[in-house]
Predict the structure.
Amino acid sequence: MTKQIQAIRGMNDCLPQQSGLWQWAEQVIREVVAGYGYQEIRTPVLESTELFKRSIGEVTDIVEKEMYTFEDRNGDSLTLRPEGTASCVRAGNEHGLLYNQQQRLWYMGPMFRHERPQKGRYRQFHQFGVEVFGLDGPDIDAEVILMSARLWQRFGMADKVTLEINSLGSSEARARYRDALIEFLTAHQDKLDEDSKRRMTSNPLRVLDSKDSNVQALLADAPDLLDYLDAESKQHFDTLCERLAQLGIQYRVNSRLVRGLDYYNRTVFEWVTDALGAQGTVCAGGRYDGLVEQLGGKATPAVGFAMGMERLVLLLETMGQAEKVPSAVQVYLCLMSDDVTAYGFKLAESLRDQMPGLRLQSHCGGGNLKKQMKRADKSGASVALIIGDEEAAQNKITLKFLRQEQEQRSVPVAELVATLRQVLED
């Protein structure tokens, strides 16, 4: 027997019974971003490796351990994109979208990281993100946070997530803090785990994000990043906090909050939840004013966030939100003989013409009424339309309710569209 080929470890299939929830979540996202005037950008999944080395940072876990990188036939080093921001900046620079302009963009698509697979985290995963270019004040920081808050409201989970915010300050302020943190960590390096010791000199701010409980206990006495902010960054952060309070957005200042990518400055934020067990991040972002210039463009302020779709869908499933997803089929058409098949197919096409968006499935393959009704029920449809020789001859359709306690009835074809609209609205 030929051996079955299975999916690559960490590459996850989205099966039909799951795709409805994905589509619903994606539709909610599209509606929310459109409500704020954001436009979609689509970038390739393959980019030059140098793009991510220069943007993310060569001493980050993503670049050091997690990227899918290979040489193509021309000897060029290519990488499957591990995140979306760098690609957006590359595309903006390349196509002249950024300099002296304001852009509000969003994207959604697959990303790739060679991490240990676990539930809700895969090696091919999907991200939704927004990126704003050309606005440097705290008001746009507040807007992207407000947009993310609206998403939680639309998803029915506003009470399940908590906003944490921080400021990393300017590059100069961060450099001063970096020196102070290294001095502190050096004095206590006997209490650090091996990963933190490695990061202590290469990327010390990442030690603040350590998952080791002993390291976290030690960091309680570490210098506070907010004490090292420059005056301009402090004013920016204070105004942002004031805006959020005015807008009724509850938050917690977490001075240990840093991001895993090197390009962030000033505002950083995360939405966290414990609804999936241990507290986890479901959305994160912040400001990255130096990245456009770092990747060859003119200096351009920027801010954005990204959300892992697998983690979002898992959270929606945990909360029972899958029940809100409409059935893939609304109406199931039963055809009781070969003689009425063509008649039924023509009727189905006419209904689709007159009722755009109608989800109608026609029975194929024959079978008696019992078999066809069983298929109709399994489809999730609200009603079944039954056409036999008698119905076709009289130009009438038998309408049978599958989810409501109502008697089946005979409906003239001329009245079918109006009847279906009323039934499906109810």
Notes: Residues 16-35 form the longest helix (20 residues).
